[in-house]
């Protein structure tokens, strides 16, 4: 019987199919690896467009706006970011990727190749700039996108309306008020005991805008502590934050062990723990207290407060630049004015942004004392319309030669104490004179308030 001869082709076909399957699998893996990925937090997945030519557009940065090409196609896009403003800006996604810090007039090309379709927040992350309006949505689309041109045409009537409407909202009511006087418990030996609780609290910075503020006793600024010379002081700090903290007594004489710089002078106050500070108020001071541990986060977000020790030493009976300061001045009001420009609080006076800032009402002829405290990251020239400000103390130190000014540069950490007589009736504006800290295309905001003088 002849041996059966088998056809070899079916086996070869099977080998060919297996080889083809292997090639397709490798190609699929390669496609997945090189495929589009989300470029920032919050993006939705999608396939890149197959355009061979990169899409190009321009985004313009100004005080305080992000404008221009805010829609791009998925695929290869190149955006030129131009700083048309007067101060440094950048353009970054929430994850921190983006351009470097651009000085006025500088530009940088941002390659957005491989971004998935979706909507992404872009901001300027210079402290305070996002809160002032430098936030926008960048849309990555699947289909074709038209290039948008930056128009230099300005709707001046709209700008007029926005400014007038924003000013007429003042003073707007918001929940919460900072600088509340903290009353002590007097212990059996005469020690004044104060309690501070740190916690993250919803805080209304401006009408309808609530932020997660880091607070002392739930307010921004924290409660004001006033002491007499010679007081024995005990401050109990309960930490209800999700991280450790400490309290530095800025401009206040304390023993080194009470200076509040963990872990150098004390252990860190961990979440859920308590720490007690004890010292004697043995020197006059216009001081403040604030966190020192991760201060770059905790302080701009609200962890600051005012401490005053002793009475003001006013230049009574002196003639300064031709102005005679009478004896026996009766002070109608003592105003702590805490400046901030960063964190969730942003450009603000005493924890509020215009139109929610507090107006101060006095009668014609009243004398008032103002203490400026800068807890922000930038310098602020504080200008009071109409009335001269007699600077009689710097950082709590009484000046031998007081002097007059209408605009006072207050740098971070500084304090200035001034004497003012409000002798002209009317509503007088009081603001930082860096104009982009107080006005934008959307109207007045930020570091503005007013002194209202009644004609009596």
The end-to-end distance, rounded to whole angstroms, is 135 Å
Number of strands: 32
Percent range for β-strand residues: 35-45%
Major sheet characteristics? 6 strands, mixed
Find the structural class using helix and strand composition: mainly beta
How many helix segments?
Answer: 3
Average pLDDT over all residues: 89
* Backbone CA Rg: 30 Å
Helix content: under 10%
Strand order of the largest sheet: 21-20-23-28-25-26
Structure, described:
The chain is mainly β. 9% of the residues lie in helices and 40% in strands. The protein contains three helices and 32 strands. It has helices at 9-34, 156-168, 295-298, and strands spanning 55-62, 65-68, 71-73, 77-83, 92-93, 107-111, 118-123, 135-141, 185-186, 192-206, 209-216, 225-227, 232-239, 248-250, 274-280, 285-290, 304-309, 319-320, 323-324, 331-342, 346-349, 360-363, 366-374, 380-384, 389-394, 397-405, 407-410, 415-422, 426-432, 439-440, 443-444, 448-454. It is globular, with a radius of gyration of 30 Å. The N and C termini lie far apart (135 Å).
């Amino acid at each position: 019987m002849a041996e059966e001869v088998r056809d070899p082709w079916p086996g070869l076909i099977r080998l060919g199919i297996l080889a083809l399957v292997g090639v397709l699998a490798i190609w699929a893996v390669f496609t997945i690896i090189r495929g589009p990925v989300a470029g920032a937090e919050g993006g939705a997945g999608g396939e890149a467009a197959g355009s061979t030519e990169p899409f190009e557009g321009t985004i313009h940065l100004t005080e305080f706006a992000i404008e221009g090409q805010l829609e791009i196609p998925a695929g290869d896009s190149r955006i030129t970011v131009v700083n048309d403003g007067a101060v440094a800006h950048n353009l970054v996604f929430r994850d921190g990727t983006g351009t470097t810090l651009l000085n006025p007039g500088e530009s940088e090309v941002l390659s957005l190749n491989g971004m998935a379709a979706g909507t992404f927040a872009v901001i300027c992350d210079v402290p305070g700039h996002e809160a002032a309006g430098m936030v926008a949505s960048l849309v990555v689309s699947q289909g074709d996108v038209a290039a948008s041109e930056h128009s230099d045409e300005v709707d001046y009537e709209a700008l007029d309306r926005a400014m007038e409407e924003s000013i007429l909202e003042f003073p707007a009511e918001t929940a919460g008020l900072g600088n509340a006087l903290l009353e002590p418990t007097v212990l059996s030996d005469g020690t004044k005991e104060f309690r501070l609780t740190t916690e993250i609290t919803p805080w209304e910075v401006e009408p309808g805008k609530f932020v997660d503020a880091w607070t002392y006793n739930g307010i921004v600024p924290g409660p004001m502590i006033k002491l007499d010379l010679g007081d024995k002081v005990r401050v109990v700090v309960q930490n209800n934050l999700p991280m450790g903290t400490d309290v530095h007594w800025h401009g206040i004489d304390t023993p080194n062990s009470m200076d509040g710089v963990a872990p150098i002078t004390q252990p860190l106050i961990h979440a859920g723990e308590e720490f007690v500070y004890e010292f004697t108020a043995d020197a006059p001071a216009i001081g403040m207290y604030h966190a020192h541990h991760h201060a770059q986060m905790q302080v701009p977000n609200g962890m600051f407060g005012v401490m005053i020790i002793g009475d003001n030493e006013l230049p009574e009976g002196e003639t300064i630049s031709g102005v005679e300061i009478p004896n026996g001045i009766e002070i109608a009001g003592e105003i702590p004015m805490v400046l901030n420009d960063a964190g969730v609080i942003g450009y603000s006076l005493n924890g509020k942004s215009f139109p929610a800032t507090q107006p101060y009402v006095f009668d014609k002829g009243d004398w008032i004392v103002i203490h400026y405290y800068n807890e922000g990251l930038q310098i602020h020239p504080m200008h009071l319309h109409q009335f001269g400000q007699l600077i009689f103390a710097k950082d709590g130190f009484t000046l031998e030669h007081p002097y007059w000014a209408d605009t006072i540069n207050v740098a971070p950490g500084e304090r200035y104490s001034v004497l003012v007589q409000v002798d002209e009736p009317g509503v007088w504006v009081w603001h930082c004179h860096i104009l982009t800290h107080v006005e934008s295309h959307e109207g007045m905001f930020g570091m503005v308030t007013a002194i209202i003088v009644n004609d009596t």
